[in-house]
Model the fold of this input.
Amino acid sequence: MIGRLNHVAIAVPDLEAASATYRETLGAKVSEPLDQPDHGVSVVFVELPNAKVELLHPLGNGSPLTKFLEKNPAGGIHHVCYEVDDILAARDWLKEKGARVLGNGEPKTGAHGKPVLFLHPKDFCGTLVELEQA
Done:
């Protein structure tokens, strides 16, 4: 059901500093910051030949990322994102298998302008999983 790895998301306490590290130290191509108010985060994407790294920073009060950074002040891997052909079919199949879809179960628009869903980490080896329609 899952397709290719789309990105690995890393929560960071300072988006500008993290972007500079990837750009200047690793020589990576880094996008401009993009605010995602529906998700409570600001993101940049580090372009790789075979996937992306998404750097996440809390946006506004009440961001779901705030708790993560309180527990991990230096930041760390937040989630992995896999592509699926049909997000609604994937959601229904996963729910039938007992997986928990976070939120109300309806896809939201992600940073790439495509529908996304998140799956409960307790159902996936302690890892928050994002699905993005390809």
Summary: The chain has one domain: 5-133. The domain at 5-133 is CATH 3.10.180.10 (2,3-Dihydroxybiphenyl 1,2-Dioxygenase; domain 1). Residues 15-25 form the longest helix (11 residues). The first strand starts at residue 5 and ends at 11.
